[in-house]
Amino acid sequence: MDNLWQISEESFDPNLKHIHSQETVFTVGNGYFCTRGTFDEGYPHESAATLLFGVFDNVPIAKEELANAPDWVGLKLVVNGERFRLDKGKLLAYTRTLDVQTGLLTRHVLWESTSGIRLQVVSERFASLADEHLGIIRYRVTIEESPNQQPVEVNLRASFNIAVGNYDLMHWATQDQGHTQNLLWLRSETKHTKVSLAQTMSFNTDDAQAKKEFADSDVAPSIRLNSTLAPGATLTAEKVVVMYTSRDGDEPLQTALNHHQKILGSAAEATTNSPHHVFVYNYQYDRQIEAWQKYWQQADVIIEGDDTAQIGIRYNIYQLRISTSEHDSRYSIAAKGLTGFGYRGHIFHDTEIFMLPFFTYVLPDIARNLLLYRYKLLPAARQKARSNGYAGAQYPWESTLNGEETTPSSIVHPETGEVIPVLNGFLELHITSSIAHAVWEYWQVTGDDKFMREYGVELLLSTAMFWDSRAEKDEQEHQYEIKNVIGPDEWHEHVINNAHTNMMARNNLQTALAALHWLENTAPTVATTLIEQLDLNKQRLAHMQDVQEHLKIPQDKETKLFEQFEGFFKLPTLDLEKYKGRKDSYQGILGVEEIQKYQIVKQADTLMMLTMLRQEFDLHTKQVNWDYYFPITDHDYGSSLTPALHAILGSELGHTEESYHMFMKGALVDLENLRGNTPEGIHAACAGAVWQAVVFGFAGLRVTSDGYTTNPHWPANWQRVAFQFKQKGTSVSIDLHR
Fold it and tell me: Where do the catalytic residues lie (predicted)?
């Protein structure tokens, strides 16, 4: 492999499922918006999408979803009356490359029309990391041959297209549209949430003879360039787009117009060109390179000796950055980022458990914002707890902007096609302790005492109060139980004393009480105010202490084997040999009800607990549970979260080869569409788990209050692992050699 920063395809595959998968893979973005890798000229049945951070509109059942914005990338090329598109004419050569080091998507096409015109098209696209409101396409057309070497009439049309939706559901309506002397603009609004979006466009060429005209439209406004090219000649055009929403301020259109004119004006002064011919690409691309370089200086993970692993982890680290804002704490990272329609842009515990550690260790300012998102939604979490008859704060399994539960009540099963009830919003409780765990880990790593004083302790205590009221006391045994839940293994419902749920609840209670003790010692006035605000009298605090000391955890004291939930060991095992060569999950094969009768696990459940709290268990405990649960977990089709997470625990136990195998399943899950659902968007949680697998797994990084240690476990061929992290504000460079 020549370049360990690039994702490339060397030929065009017209299979529509492959096209949709590659649209996801070749997404460009900057945290404010992401744009799927559709072709500039369009393609029949494409799945074009530009998703904006935190911009939602209403949908039935699932309440709301990220609203697919009017498409900004469209370019229509016509030569001598024949339209250039990849499903027309004759495709002679094709390459497409995403350079994750710079966020640049490039495509080269050699194409011949039915009349014998041979042309080359080179397209370059990026969403600016230096200016989050800016997207640019540079488009070059070269006429290589024409019949009798005659000049060719070339027409280029750059447009906005409002006729795009989330599949068949349209979310935007045009409010107004028009143009100035050199800019075209479109103002649209989401139909229900009334978010206004302003998009401005300039479309300039280096061809002084080209004629430009504006075509106003409420559906597809455009700027058209008409010229004539002789064989051997090239026309270069730049499409520059600026986007602002009403979430950015009161006058998004005027703000966008001013911003765009400033971009063009500065370049025009520097080059003395007219506004109709000024080019900004080179300057903006230089800024793009600088912004990404700054990111990679902090975030890069170097793997020497394994090119596939190197490209895989860099791609996943790229995805983590483009799907989150650097400064906006009103929204978080969705399960599919901003790259597709899967899960509708809803936030799960995927963010805190799988993605947040990357930001906590590498980009703590972003981690802080992601946790502030949860803090700001405490009122809604308290309301959810109250509505269910409990105290404190119970976070929803799925959430968007207002913190209310957005888990749909039913869905169509993606494998069986049957309509099934979704109980997660009612019974999958461990997200509450996942958020608390992330707050505690953030504090331990960053030492951000200000965050804890102002936000963190309150969140920890509020979530602990929920567990305190949710646990039921068994008076005879003097133990507390948590009944009727769904653990991380979502194939088993209505279970009692799920080990993961109970252990993480106990951890939530422990850390909350420890944080309160810290606050009382360091900021007693703040602590007193918080205790009064939460009505934490001595009896309540004593009860919380009692619950955390006596919460039942199903574990054999001699063997150290945890029972995933009470009664799990009484279930029969599933004959996995019968299903060799399968292409579906065990749930998809057996059905929602039947799968619950067997000892088969969707994703890491007990083993996730041992990984999250890895410093609290000895190697023997980890080993006996690995030996039991790893073989009965569906690593291929259960959950994308499973493989890379298992690599951490497996590495520690010396199962390096198996861990590497798991890691690569995670690293390549989208690049090779291993689960068949990449068209729905990237597996963002898996991206975070891949980073954790290298740093916590193969490098064996452990950070404590005393400092840090590493304990490398080397996959075959790996010769070096290097990365950076921050501990309490200090940058630490790790460079391990075999």
Answer: 490
